Amino acid sequence: EISACLVGSEMCIRDRLLDDDVAGLDIDVSTENHVVTLQGEADSAVSSSRAHAIASETDGVRRVINRIVVR
């Protein structure tokens, strides 16, 4: 659940990505000062957008930088 996540927790975001429809994607997550950076590859723009939304919806996240490449 979102409220159980620590502020800007990389592990929390990774766990949420694994539990969602984007589980098969190769995405690296890093955080610094409430800013999340997503890097990796996705099979569609929809998957990339979903990963971005998951990160954005995490408590404490102020900004998401989406560097996911759609292949």
Explain what you see.
There is one protein chain. With 71 residues, the chain is α+β, with helices and mostly antiparallel strands. The chain is built from two helices and three strands, in the order αββαβ. It has a three-stranded mixed β-sheet with strand order 1-2-3, covered by helices on one side. α2 links the parallel β2 (35-42) and β3 (63-70). The longest helix has 12 residues, at 45-56. The protein is globular, with a radius of gyration of 11 Å. The mean pLDDT is 81.
Order of helices and strands: HEEHE
Mean pLDDT: 81
What general outline do the C-alpha atoms trace?
Answer: globular
Instruction: Give a short account of the largest sheet.
Output: 3 strands, mixed
Low-confidence runs = none
Helix content: 25-40%
What count of helical segments does DSSP give? 2
Our Rg estimate from Cα atoms comes to 11 Å
Structural class: alpha+beta
Q: What is the CA–CA distance across the termini? A: 30 Å
Sheet with the most strands: spatial strand order: 1-2-3
- Our estimate of the beta-strand percent is 25-35%
State the total count of DSSP E strands.
Answer: 3
